[in-house]
Amino acid sequence: MLTGVRIVFLGGDARQIEVIRKCVELDATVSAAGFDQWERPCEGVSLEIMSAELLSNADILVLPTVGCDNEGHIKALFSSQQLQLLEEHVAALPHHCTVFTGIANEYLRQLCMKHTLKLTELLDRDDVAIYNSIPTAEGALVIAIQNTSFTIHGSKSIVLGMGRTGFTMAKSLKGLGASVKVGVRKQEHFARAEQMGWQPFMTDNILHHVSDADLIFNTVPSLIITAEVLSRIPRHAVIIDLASAPGGCDFRYAERRGIKAILAPGLPGIVAPQSAGIIMANALVQSISDGNLNKGG
Fold this sequence. Notes:
alpha/beta
C-alpha cells in the first residue's frame, strides 16, 4: 500500500492514466497537472495546475515515460496547456522527494543532481524493458503489415541489435515464418542468435547482408543504416527504426533512394497504452516499495 505517500504526476499520455489509477488504488495521495482535458478522471485524483507550490509537497514526482525535452517541456496529451519543468519547480521539491521517469535526458539529470534529488529511470529496469519489448514488437509488426504488399511469412527480415527489444523482435518474426538475420556486436549474442535458429552476423559486416532484405528492424540507437548500407538495400525493402530519436538510419538518403524508412519510437504507448501503463505502474510501485521513498531521510 502507498497510504500517506504524496505523489504528483506531470503530464503524459494514456500510459500515465494507468499509473495514476494504480497509485490511487493503493491509497496514495495523488495530484496531477496536465490533465485538464481528461474526460473521465478516476475518483481520488486531484487535478491541479502546475506550480512550485504543488511540487513542494511531493514525496514522489512522476514524469512521463519520455521525461521532458532539453528545455523542460513535458508532453501532456490530456492538456490544452503547455507544461514546462523549470529549475524553480525542481528547487521546490522536498529533499526526500524521488523523481521518476521512463528515460531521462541530460537536462533532467543535471537539475536533479544540482538539487540533490534522487532520479530513477524505470526503463533502466530489466523487467520493464523486457515487458515493454512485447508491445514494441507487436507495434512494429503492425507497421510492417501496413506498409508492405507481401506477407511477413516467407520474408527475409533483418533485426539490428540483440538487446531486449531486438530479441523479442527476432523471436516474433521467426514465429510468423520469416527468415531472420540478426546483426550483433558481441560474440555471446552471436552464439545466442544461432542457438535460437536465427542467422547471426556481426554488424561490422552489415554491407554483406542487406542486399536481399525485405524488412529491416533497427534497435541500435546510433547511425548504423548509413548511406552506404542503403545503397545496397533493395528499393522494395521497408525499414522500421525502433531506436530512440533520431534513430539509426540516414532517413534523408533513404528518401532519396525511394526506400520507405519509418522512425517508430515509443510504440508501447501508441499501440498498447493500457498494457504499457500497467507495466510502468507495477515498476513504479515496486521501486517505491524497494526503498526509493526517502521520506524523512
